[in-house]
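Something for you to look into today, if you have time. Could you write out one complete protein record for me, on any chain you like? The space below this message is yours for that.
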Amino acid sequence: MEFPGTTTPRRRWPGRGRGAAVGRFTVGHVTSMEISDIYVHDGKLLRVIEDTQQERLTMEVLLPVDPKSDELVPRLLVFDDVHGYQIFEGRVEGCPVLLNLSVMEKSGQWSRVRLDTTHGYRELYCTAARVCDHEPLV
């Protein structure tokens, strides 16, 4: 397996399973879907957790219950096999409001994902993404 634009092979270490717990959060129902089908408009980005050992990026967010609803519920956006995570946002007070999540390009198993926010945008390469229900621990 190779990163886009490099010739360095990447090894998958034994025993690196994907568990049900992510960081400090309890994960409930997991919804697998195409990255471009994840609806984020008017959601809020609360925090980002980078797990370098698992090569995973977890975003704690509030997302709309459905595209027609103004009600926001706690969710985790989890991206697997992440590299090249970059933030192109200005310094603005408050949590970024999410505008759009899209796949900018695809190369083999890799997707270049862009998350547009009211503060700018974020980009990353990943092989998969999922939305998880969760209850923040107090």
